[in-house]
């Protein structure tokens, strides 16, 4: 006689966390980078469920990726059908319908009409690498102008063009020979007494009067790369006049304007692309993360004919343009249009920022800022106006203990609110209640 086998108990969160630490590199769980010790067993909508059955509101969208929430049913259905039909096809040998449809859809929502071609990649890192290759090879110039505080990825190339932290660039500094950096004109490191506009003007003057005069001649620069809203830096928003001034420098010296929309794009800031807040036409746009609603890895670069149709530039990767990922991205764009998610991001973001603005009365809050559902609270000691990583860390873990996961980089002083664009109003309100309570508690 058969006896019914007892189901073994599911491993607890603590057991899974111990296995994780044993199997994966230290960067992902070490003290300097560790986020929340939460092993997730299930995710849906804006909710994460951990291995012990606890629920959390996800204010990260998985680092601004799952813009439609976790496991959007329409994207899942279309992606599964595409996998069954196409499996994998390498797009530069056997072009397929999903990649053509995606390219046409992306161009329908492009930020400016000069963009007419689409290069497909696998990750935001790959998209930025590709954009840099187009700029350098077509212009036949070796140097890229980047900005301090920007993040473009952790590969050797993107790590050198970006300059988020000297800690992450350690040992590789010498590889950045083809990059010069200028300050990003926003954020808490603005010189004392300088307003936003003034700081933007100062940086443009610094580029023209210092960098171009003493470091690199303008005809040696292929292009510049800008995050129009610098998310990883702590939601920095530069003045309009700066972004327009940078475009003018590009026109004057023949530089390619590369717009990195990997994190701030796809509706995150309340416009389809964050560059739209500045009324500037970029020459190349790097897109990633949220473009497939978070279900499949895919990224893209939009570019001009001049940059993409006249020369052979050897850029690309095997899995870029995976048919099912193209379908996931096309379906994401359809869902965004149908459910008016860009407008939703703007509306929910405006209301949230209004509420967050009231928090500047708390002793721990130095600033609240953002656009759309791309929001941040800078924390520290208000009296001395000193940002404090320790306060941020305490607030982050307090939120996690109370069922909310904000977006937070270990060592940062900004707690970020970047939820799915589909988050319900009660979910967002409830999550902000938890964050507000944590800010209040941290002050005592
Ligand atoms: C602005 C920006 N560019 C590029 C990247 C790199 O993208 P990925 O991690 O998908 O390779 C990121 C990732 O966070 C990003 O925020």
Describe the structure in your own words.
The chain is an alpha/beta fold and 444 residues long. Helix content is 38%, strand content 16%. It has a seven-stranded mixed sheet, with helices on both faces. Strands 1-2-3-14 form a four-stranded mixed sheet. The radius of gyration is 22 Å and the shape is globular. The N and C termini lie far apart (65 Å). The model has no long low-confidence stretch (mean pLDDT 93). The chain binds pyridoxal-5'-phosphate. The site of pyridoxal-5'-phosphate (PLP) has 16 residues, from helix 5.
Question: SSE layout and pairings?
Answer:
Elements: H1 13-23, E1 40-44, E2 47-50, E3 55-58, H2 61-64, H3 73-86, H4 97-108, E4 117-121, H5 124-139, E5 143-148, H6 156-161, H7 166-169, E6 179-183, H8 196-215, E7 221-226, H9 240-253, E8 256-260, E9 284-287, E10 299-303, H10 305-308, H11 323-338, H12 341-357, E11 365-371, E12 374-381, E13 386-387, H13 389-401, E14 404-405, E15 414-417, H14 425-443
Parallel strand pairs: 3-14, 5-6, 5-7, 7-8, 8-9
Antiparallel strand pairs: 1-2, 2-3, 4-10, 9-10, 11-12, 12-13, 12-15
Helix pairs in contact: 3-11, 4-11, 8-9, 13-14
The structure holds pyridoxal-5'-phosphate (PLP).
Residues 63, 123-125, 128, 151-153, 227, 231-232, 260, 262-263, 288-289 line the site of pyridoxal-5'-phosphate.
